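Lay summary. Proteins are chains of building blocks that fold into shapes, and those shapes determine what they do. In this project we predict the shape from the chain. Here is one chain we studied, written as its sequence of building blocks.
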Amino acid sequence: MVGSPCSLVTGEYGWSANMERIMRAQALRDSSMSQYMMAKKTMELNPNHPIVKALKNKFGADGGDKSAKDLVFLLYETALLTSGFTLDDPSSFSGRIHKLIRLGLSIGGDDEADDEDALDENEEDDDEEPPKLENERPR
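And here is the predicted shape, written in a compact code that computers can read:
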């Protein structure tokens, strides 16, 4: 984990990432049983990685910064992908990637239009909830 800012690991018990993918694809699966068999995921951070240090400083300066939250979600979702899991909401992941590309290319002004389109499509408010984890119960 020296070169990576974070990784997702699963516990000893439960399904692996590949088995979870296979079971989700089953047509006659028992959804109540799948909740118990999904392995608990743990996100391990590399505290010496420059990305983690920069995120810590960014949250220290302003804990409510929406761009910092997007970066953390992006970090989590990329850790999901590199660990072999699938994303629950690929459209939000691609939206974050597009924002990052616009930022890298110094293209401004499209954020408001894209945000309005996303709000129209998803009919959500500005407060984006973090992605639900497997063992997390709805509030």
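What the prediction tells us: Residues 116-125 have pLDDT under 50 and may be disordered.
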